[in-house]
User: Fold this.
Amino acid sequence: MKKISKKTIERAFVYIRTLKSLLKDKEDYISSQELADILGTTDVQIRKDISYFGKVGIPGKGYEIRELETTLEKFILQKNIVRVVLFGVGNLGTALLKYPEFNKDRIKIIAAFDRDNRKIDKKINGVKIYSLKKVSSVIKKEKVDIGIIAVPKECSQNVANLIVRAGLKGIVNFAPVSIQVPDDVTVKNIDFSIEFLALFCNSNVAKAKQKNL
Amino acid sequence: MKKISKKTIERAFVYIRTLKSLLKDKEDYISSQELADILGTTDVQIRKDISYFGKVGIPGKGYEIRELETTLEKFILQKNIVRVVLFGVGNLGTALLKYPEFNKDRIKIIAAFDRDNRKIDKKINGVKIYSLKKVSSVIKKEKVDIGIIAVPKECSQNVANLIVRAGLKGIVNFAPVSIQVPDDVTVKNIDFSIEFLALFCNSNVAKAKQKNL
DNA sequence: TGGACTTCGTTAAAAATTTCACGATATTAT
DNA sequence: ATAATATCGTGAAATTTTTAACGAAGTCCA
Ligand SMILES: NC(=O)c1ccc[n+]([C@@H]2O[C@H](COP(=O)([O-])OP(=O)(O)OC[C@H]3O[C@@H](n4cnc5c(N)ncnc54)[C@H](O)[C@@H]3O)[C@@H](O)[C@H]2O)c1
Ligand SMILES: NC(=O)c1ccc[n+]([C@@H]2O[C@H](COP(=O)([O-])OP(=O)(O)OC[C@H]3O[C@@H](n4cnc5c(N)ncnc54)[C@H](O)[C@@H]3O)[C@@H](O)[C@H]2O)c1
Assistant:
């Protein structure tokens, strides 16, 4: 069996999300072409991706939506729930705590941590906010998978160190700085500014601007 | 001159950000290897990327930090300010309005729009919130480049339509759905759940979990 | 000043990803 | 039942991206 690429796995999650929303419709089947139209990609890309997960399509007809959805989901998540903890309950952190889609997507925020004493022991959306002293004990007890960094950028390396020391192997970093971690820890940086700037440069946006001036 | 790839442009923004933070230090020069260590990448990747922007390095010494920073910045942004408008001033939208890094990164939120009458005409962090009726007029007057979708997913296609009709060519979509737009409009989807789930699958995180069970 | 050493910039090779082309297979209509 | 049609699955080709290799160019120190 061939290894499934990162790109394919990412797209698989998009497929899953889309298929789930299609379940409500009256149609039972969808073709790679129709799915491609919805997602703005190509039918070949979709068939190629799906082929890594098995043969579930029906030539001449397409994919049974429900079957494809469960096939993909079982294959890549195996009924797991991804358990995360949040560091920093400020503007962004609070929004994350209130984001209802995480639960639907089987991502569970187990606990939050903040330095600000006024926030400690409060709950937001059912998630308790702890002092940083509790990091190690909470993480050990709760079988946490991933740590989210949503603290000011000056503190993000410190928090990353805490996360690593607690034994987590995955970090999502929203702070606009690079953090250093051991090789066996994976960091995913989400940097809004860069997304905006890159979109500006990589698309027709910049061209449109030039015309207007 | 060769075309610069999207990946290179994205990384260039990371380099710029890092170089700016290094300006405060006492060192004037940095080698590709040192920068790679900071960013968790390789020296070759960095030299390759930089080579698209010109020859600025000094063999045996490295890059002058300030010079490299200005070279990259001039090349890809040409002193532009990226002008954006926000749709949806809820949990996420409010956090975005309060995010101070956008200004530092030359991204300016010109205006926000919301459906909720109680929010209209209020200001957050100096940015005025308008009724949806004003979309077209504000966008036309203000030379906007990009629209941000931070409304509930059920409304995101509608808002996308508004954005397209107003003539914008770039959309950042935070809602966890795919939106359909004409070919000349570029959409960047930022889907937190997928980032988390993909990190979980693509890294050591899942393996660590298996061991623990 | 010269020679050892560093680090850049670039061409070539390797790896990863996407796209193409088409045979195989199920469907649908006659 | 058969022909026409639609759509899947996949090996091979094309493209893109990363990595390797190394000559060129400047640095640094004795
Ligand atoms: N606001 C946004 O929309 C946005 C967008 C992208 C990225 N970010 C980044 O996310 C991070 C948080 O942004 P924010 O707007 O929520 O900031 P914020 O100032 O509103 O919140 C920061 C929170 O972190 C807490 N904190 C500070 N130091 C801490 C530490 N060492 N350990 C634990 N908690 C600590 C503070 O008490 C506060 O509650 C920043 O790095 C920011 O650059 C924010
Ligand atoms: N909260 C998060 O951390 C988070 C994270 C990732 C993605 N998202 C996505 O971002 C979007 C917004 O999330 P949120 O948590 O801020 O939701 P929210 O409910 O707090 O805010 C939504 C806002 O949009 C406004 N609105 C509704 N329909 C509108 C319309 N047609 N035009 C303009 N404004 C409209 C509402 O009045 C409200 O102010 C959602 O699609 C959500 O899935 C949120």
Observations:
- The first helix of chain B runs from residue 6 to 22.
- Strands of chain B lie at 29-30, 57-58, 62-64, 82-87, 107-113, 123-124, 127-130, 146-149, 170-173, 186-189.
- Residues 97 and 124 of chain B are 7 Å apart (CA to CA).
